[in-house]
Design goal:
The chain is mainly α. The protein has helices at 17-37, 41-59. The longest helix is centred in the middle third of the chain and has 21 residues, at 17-37.
């Protein structure tokens, strides 16, 4: 890839966007789909938001 800071491949253990999306997208869609089916979508979004806020605060 032109302009890439890596020679051949990204360093081992580096979380890149394509890998992150594969790890997060399917479980998130499944969780939100079940929450929508159970009519608790607002509560599920609140749980996701709180989890991300706590994670960001903890990693700060």
């Amino acid at each position: 890839m032109p302009g890439s800071p890596y020679l051949d491949e990204p360093p081992k253990g580096l979380l890149t966007w394509p890998r992150l999306l594969r790890l997060v997208a399917l479980p998130s869609v499944a969780f939100l789909g079940v929450a929508w089916y159970a009519d608790v979508l607002f509560e599920a979004l609140a749980i996701i938001t709180l989890t991300l806020l706590v994670t960001a605060w903890y990693r700060r």
